[in-house]
Amino acid sequence: MRIADLKDKTVAVWGMGKEGKEILNYLLSHGVTDKFVLLNDTACEKPSGFEKCKMYSGHKLDAGCVEANVIVRSPGVSVYKPEIIKYRKKVTTVSDLCLHEIKAKYPECKIIAISGSKGKSTSVSALAFMLGKLGHKVGLGGNIGRPLIELVDEKYDFLVAEVSSYQAVDLTISPDVAMFTNLFYVHSEWHNGHENYCKDKMHLVANQKDGDVFFANARNKQLMEYSEVYAKRRRLYNCENAFHAEGKALYYGKEKLLLIDDLKLSGNHNLDNLAGVFSILQYLGMDVKKAAEFLREFEPLPHRLQKVAVKNGVLFINDSISTAPEAAIGAMRSFGENLVLISGGQDNLQDYTDYAKSVEVCVNVKAVITLYQTGPKIAEALREGVKREDFELFEVDSLEKAVATAYDLLQKVGGGVVLFTPTSPSFDFYKNFMERGNHFMKIVEGL
């Protein structure tokens, strides 16, 4: 379905977040339709300019679905909701509409999408940056914060999209080129369990055609398992004869391409993702050596191993984007100095056994400070899994106390790194990981 197919139809937009508001404004301002129904899980204010539209929420959602010819589902609205299942033939998404629109209007535009449990935002940003530096016109959008609807009226050489599992699950079109960074064991109520989560994410490439490809991280066992069904179009990275990370370097075969220390990016684990990004660049026929030189100028995204400040020999790192134990494991391995971790957030039924094992073997981790809902669960895993005599565990009830405790500990041993890596979602405590990271930085600034 294209945007033009909504002409003069009654369109229900489900979800009054940024993407929902953007599609409402686009359809109205472009004269596609002026007949709207507003749907939201809970009662909320109507968007500006749409005050006269009917709004349905709660137990009345079904009635709103009946009124509509088409239902545009926002990413936060699960496809496993009873109403979405019941009216599935009416349901589309902004991502699906936009990808069809771009492919129809600009067939020469190459659509590239990146997904994965972690690392996709940095990957799409680095890819778009290097393509732009190499002289191409690039549109960047999707889950990274800029809805794709903002990109449909301009012609690009490449459209680079970050796609979440929420967006991939019901796409009826796939990108020309895709990449998966990794696939972690997480439990999401949105997906009705982990098995659905993995399959929903892989659906990103379910509609690829002959000639389309996707790249998968060969080091991620779960990704290899769930992408096997589409192996005909799968190409691998992080293996010996392809782009792969070793220590602090990125190689192509035996040739060293770049060092992480030469980049503004922090964290050796970013090299794993860059191996995939450079695989795409090579596939597109780009000069990868020139791209690697340009990458030195790339500014990392906030809240992703972000250097906040150095105070009395203590470096503070904001990794608020970390919402899974695997993210923290990768982050802690990126530092060789004395290290204190601050972890905890909303419980997402995650297992912290491997997190504790990593703390045990990373002997530079001198302490972990836990807090929030998952604090006790993380602490219990650490008590079971870490037996080093030089390791300390602290349980606190506020981020302010966590930062102060970490700062004091490292000052006593002559300095080091405080790594804020929550390993858990932010909800119930903050609106999102950005607000959480900003709170951490504000505390650090006040020390």
Please give a structural write-up.
The structure is a single chain. This protein is an alpha/beta fold and 447 residues long. It has 3 domains: 3-93, 3-Layer(aba) Sandwich (Rossmann fold), CATH 3.40.50; 106-295, Mur-like, catalytic domain (UDP-N-acetylmuramoyl-L-alanine:D-glutamate ligase); 306-445, Alpha-Beta Complex (Protein-Tyrosine Phosphatase, Chain A). Helix content is 33%, strand content 21%. It is built from 15 helices and 20 strands. It has helices at 18-29, 61-67, 82-86, 94-105, 120-133, 165-168, 194-202, 221-227, 269-283, 288-295, 325-332, 353-361, 375-385, 399-412, 433-445; strands at 11-14, 36-40, 54-57, 70-73, 91-93, 110-115, 138-142, 158-162, 177-180, 213-217, 234-237, 243-246, 249-252, 255-259, 306-311, 314-318, 339-343, 365-370, 392-395, 416-420. A 6-stranded parallel beta sheet has the order 7-8-6-9-10-11, with helices on both faces. It has a 6-stranded mixed beta sheet with strand order 15-16-20-17-18-19, with helices on both faces. Helix 3 (82-86) links the parallel strand 4 and strand 5 (91-93). Helix 5 crosses helix 10 and helix 12 packs across helix 13. The longest helix has 15 residues, at 269-283. The chain is globular and about 70 Å long. The mean pLDDT is 94.
Number of helices: 15
CATH architecture of the largest domain: 3-Layer(aba) Sandwich
> How many strand segments?
20
Contiguous uncertain segments of 5+ residues: none
Shape: globular
Strand order of the largest sheet: 7-8-6-9-10-11
From the alpha-carbon coordinates, what is the Rg to the nearest angstrom? Answer: 23 Å
* Helix content bin: 25-40%
Structural class: alpha/beta
CATH superfamily grouping of the largest domain: Mur-like, catalytic domain
How big a fraction of the residues is strand?
A: 15-25%
Report the span from N to C terminus.
54 Å
Biggest pleated sheet: 6 strands, parallel
Query: What is the CATH topology of the largest domain?
Result: UDP-N-acetylmuramoyl-L-alanine:D-glutamate ligase
Please tell me the total number of domains.
Answer: 3
Mean pLDDT: 94
CATH structural class of the largest domain: Alpha Beta
